[in-house]
Amino acid sequence: MVTEKSVEPFRGPIPESGSRHPLLPTPYRVVKRVVETDTVVTLFLEALEGGNLTFRPGQFNMLTAFGVGEIAVSISGDPLDGGPIRHTIASVGAVSHALCSLRVGSLVGVRGPFGNGWDLTGVTGMAGSATQDVVVVAGGVGLAPLRPAVLELLKMKEEGRGRVVVLIGSRSPDQVLFKEELDVWRTRGAHVEVTVDRADASWRGSVGVVTSLISSAPFDPHDAFSLVCGPEVMMRFTARALLDKGMHEDKIQLSLERNMQCGIGWCGHCQLGPYLLCRDGPVFPYGGRLAELLAKREL
Amino acid sequence: MVVNRAFLDALVAALLEYGYRVLGPVFQNGSIVIDDLTSTADMPVGWTDEQSPGNYRLCHSADGQLFGWTVSPASPKALLFPPRVTVWQRGAGRDDFSVPFAQPVAITGATKSAISTVSKPQSTGSTGKVLSDTELTFSASGTTHFNPRSNRDDRHLLALVGIRPCEAAALEINDAVFMKGSFPDPFYCERRSDMFLLVAECASSNASCFCDSMGAGPGIDSGFDLAVTEMLDEDGEYSYFLRIGSQRGEELFTVAVEQASSIGVGTDPSIEPSTGMDRGEGDGKDIPTFVELSDLSNSVSQSTSMQRASCSLNYSLEEVLAKRDAQLQHAKELQVGMHPRVAELLRRNLDHPIFTDIAGRCLACGNCTSVCPTCFCSDVVDKNDMHGAISRERSWSSCFNAAHSELHGQPVRHSVASRYRQWLTHKFSNWYDQFGTSGCVGCGRCITWCPVGIDVRQEVAGIASDADMKGDMQSTGSHGPS
């Protein structure tokens, strides 16, 4: 009697059959390792099977160092080159240290890509805005998530679009990332300037915080947009300097960072006020609520 | 209709027969927890609770009341989002280590099933069968610590009997986090999608309750399969006003009637539940569905109960509804509410000195986040043994821990004041931005279980009175952000 009955399933969606559990990493192998500075390493990763993931500039992956843990790391490779997935990692904690210590042939767990990435529609979009200048401002390892954007912008520039200005702040000359590549960017037409907090005898460039480069940088602030990544305090001051120069607050994009333990909006660690950075960001325009939020301590 | 306790037993029996794991309030170890039920006898019969900031007491009487208590420290959250689950595991051994994902044999259930498929739980049919190991999806292998003494944790088909309206509301809030985003949680979805809810409305409130001001109780109008309102009859017996909130609630009800009737006494064939919609919702009440009161004076009996199960009525519908309204009204009147413009208030007062004041009392122990039915933060941590086996565990976290906000080895939120602010603003303000609703249902657990008795309502009222004095609060909006 009762056995003929059925109760209709209702309410929510069931994840599609065959879909991977969102917390399960995919195995990738380290195929190349480049030491960038004494604390920063770039890993090149190839999927064991099924091909590498595709991504947009400014997105990040969750990388697992097996037995140590998982962290969010932005992707520093060229989205269009189709090669190994590139991650430039600063050794600042247990997991990042373990990742930096991996050798060629090691396995890494990868989940992603996550996050919104840089909004480059200002350049790629309407013809009217095609001549817009772009100011890329990086602090320290913040250059890593900006590299894919710079590469994409340089391609656009070769098609006759606006100027690409890259301003880099670094603690000291030996901490400057992608040094050789910066010259390549210059030859491809980018205006690249580097400043360091503390110079040594060999240094011939500027000394000081990266915001000091903004005033003299060659771009039209009223028709430019900006991509900024670095320590939060550096981003705040950079945004103010750009505003002072006349750039609109909505055209300043910041890539934010918080503790992230899932990348998919479950763990709650990456909250900044109204935002879950992994889900809503990590890139946000400085306009709207962000300026106010960044001005609060310990938020 | 109005049913008696034996009929509730018949409903529980019907749920069990369908294959549901029936869970509900149980008196255990001096507290009320959520555990397996086989009949209403397992429920906290005769227990009432007394709650106030930092205080929880249970009292027993000879009264046969099933729902005399208000809310227990346990919430259904733990069934869908267990305090600790193993997300995936990888065995020890060198070969294994080199190719952790290529050797499914070496991977225990969690990973295996997750790799294969996340299969949709079978629509139960009658069988209510326990899915075999291979069919078990990700969740099955996750170690659920929710109910260690039960070995039936793997069953997905859950029926919650006797949860409160605020808890049903909390489940809907959880849905937005774990089911309706871009990345649904398979563990959550499997259990939640087919979950059966029999909700018990509140006839009373404790001093920590503020569900009325959060719009989450003490009654329930939608989001349930069956709802009961416990009512004391003139003869001192309790009876239950039963409403049907879904098609399967109706089906279960019919089965319970059939079951009871097949056992013995014949039933009146006129037991034909019909929904409010069918009848044109003529009563003007804000109740989506209700069942026509049919005269079931030939009450049905159930063999397991001494009492005869009955769907009976010595009431008119108007009388019952009036009685229900009076009870809900009574429960509302006992409550001290949350400030109606809390979202806006908090957003404007992030630097309010009250957070420093609270930090002087707050122990940052995280009790409030543990008992909260909507707090969803989790840590994801790798655990290793000496042989190289790894298990990745996901466990409840709390924004009161310094490590919660750790970035580059330093917490972003150093001070307890900033952590309290994070918790409070998240619940009452930022949740709207993140998920479109409040993150609070007003169950009052965070007030009752705070060891120093911090009362969120009072703290928000403190901010509000300052704001009123400064005159910077325009009278706009209600709970939500304007």
3D architecture notes:
- The complex is a heterodimer of chains A (299) and B (482).
- Chain A folds into 2 domains: 26-114, Elongation Factor Tu (Ef-tu), domain 3; 121-294, 3-Layer(aba) Sandwich (Rossmann fold), CATH 3.40.50.
- Chain A contains 7 helices and 15 strands.
- Chain A starts with 25 loop residues before the first strand and ends in a 5-residue tail after the last helix.
- Chain A has helices at residues 94-100, 121-124, 143-158, 179-187, 232-245, 277-280, 290-294, and strands at 26-35, 40-47, 60-65, 69-74, 85-90, 107-114, 133-139, 164-170, 191-196, 206-207, 224-229, 252-255, 271-272, 275-276, 283-285.
- Chain A has 299 residues and is an alpha/beta fold.
- Chain B has an 8-stranded mixed sheet with strand order 3-2-7-8-9-10-1-11, with helices on both faces.
- With 482 residues, chain B is an alpha+beta fold.
- In chain B, helix 11 crosses helix 14 (416-435).
- Chain B is built from 16 helices and 15 strands.
- Chain B is globular.
- Chain B has helices at residues 5-17, 77-80, 94-98, 109-116, 138-141, 165-178, 186-193, 211-214, 247-263, 317-333, 342-348, 354-359, 367-371, 416-435, 445-448, 456-470, and strands at 2-3, 21-28, 31-36, 47-52, 55-60, 84-90, 158-163, 196-200, 226-232, 238-244, 311-312, 378-384, 390-396, 406-407, 410-411.
- At the A-B interface, strand 14 of A face strand 6, helix 4, helix 6, helix 7 and helix 9 of B.
Summarize the structure.
Chain A is 20% helix and 28% strand. Chain A is built from seven helices and 15 strands.
